[in-house]
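Cysteine dioxygenase, pasting as requested.
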Amino acid sequence: MQRLLRHFSKYLPLKQIYHQQDTDQCKTLILERYNIFSIENGPGLVLHRFVHSDPDRGYHDHPWQFGISLILSGSYREIKVKHQTREIQERIYRAGSVNYFNGKDYHRVLLYPVVKFNVELNSQNRENNERTHNSNEEEEEVWTLFFHWKRVKHWGFLKQLDPMKEKECHEEGQWEYHQYSQSIKDADGAWWERT
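Structure tokens follow.
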């Protein structure tokens, strides 16, 4: 399936979304967004290729009234914060799953690490047919088909405040919202890089 998606995506307009730490000169590719069709400010249909997990900087929302994502290949874990209750939910999405979004909830997508198997060729392992496996920083890519409705608000991030780290005293469980796009119109450019 991934081979077919890679081939198909070569013919679509691409927007790459990166993350850069303030202290680091290197950018990390997070997501590739291939535009299948869109009308200015929605609706639209895009093919997403997730390359890395969302950085640990809070939970992002979506600017659209609603969206539906069909997982085509791979799997990921989603941590979602409900808008009104701030209840945190976790769920695993696999190929064939459907994920529904609204513009009010916040979430973070976590990919699974690539697990590499190394077969050691010593006599003991050969006899027992044992395998050792090590994971590295690579993550398994995920492909989704994402349909979104009209754009109704800005992009932003919700972050839970840590009372031990904040300058002012905050109660446990308090949240802070940061708006990162400058316009409700779909002209946010590299909003992901400014977070």
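Note for the archive: The longest helix spans residues 2-9.
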